[in-house]
Amino acid sequence: MTKFIMKDKFKYKTAIIILAAGNSSRLGRPKQLLKYKGSTLLKNTISEALKVYNSFVIVVTGANHNEVEKQLNTAEINICFNPEWETGMSSSIVKGLNELLLLKPDSNECIFAVCDQPFVNNLIFEHLIRHYHKSKKRIIASAYSETLGTPVLFHKKYFNELLELSGQEGAKKIIKKHQNDVYSIPFEKGNIDIDTEEDYNKLVSE
């Protein structure tokens, strides 16, 4: 019975766009390929996204895209290359969303995630979707360290604003602008991301 109820709630495809285009300048090597849980940081995020019932996963690559893409199973996901990755995360948001609208023009919402939050899991994604329907808010964001961030779900009413982002602007700009339309869910350890070798060493030593 529980499984039936869950499937009924997720009876249509929800797009999960994973932003993985950065060059990991502070780390000095591609964070997407760091070994984690017998896999890599990026593949772990993809695996969790694919566990969401009826999910549709897009991965946006950029720096080191040849090396990153050759390790991914293209039968399970959709990969798009962002040639403007150096201009900042906004270009990857725009690229990923444009890819979604090309492949699934009738999409009502999408989730943006990043590849370097090692503790992200399918339950986080599912909670975003569940509270999107339950709360009737059109932005559902993850809450950690007294801020709101990824993974974050946006209704299509915000797609045009997302497509207008530029430079180093991230989706947080839109979250702040429309606080009255935001619902937050707690993401334990969501503040942990991998930016430096120290971050990674701490992660694997725990």
Structural account:
The structure is a single chain. With 206 residues, the chain is an alpha/beta fold. The protein has a single domain (2-205), classed as Spore Coat Polysaccharide Biosynthesis Protein SpsA, Chain A (Alpha-Beta Complex). It is 35% helix and 23% strand. The chain is built from eight helices and nine strands. The chain has helices at 2-9, 41-50, 65-69, 89-103, 122-135, 159-163, 172-177, 197-205, and strands at 14-20, 35-36, 39-40, 55-61, 78-81, 109-114, 139-144, 147-155, 182-186. The relative contact order is 0.17.
What is the global morphology?
globular
What's the CATH architecture? Alpha-Beta Complex
For the CA atoms, what is the radius of gyration? 16 Å
CATH superfamily: Spore Coat Polysaccharide Biosynthesis Protein SpsA, Chain A
| Nearest-integer average pLDDT | 91
Q: Tally the helices: what do you get?
A: 8
Q: What's the CATH class, please?
A: Alpha Beta
The class by helix and strand makeup works out as alpha/beta
- As laid out across the biggest beta sheet, the strand order is 5-4-1-6-8-7-9
Task: Report the helical percentage.
Answer: 25-40%
**Biggest sheet: strands, sense, closure?**
7 strands, mixed
Question: How far is the first residue's CA from the last residue's CA?
Answer: 37 Å
- What CATH calls the topology is Spore Coat Polysaccharide Biosynthesis Protein SpsA, Chain A
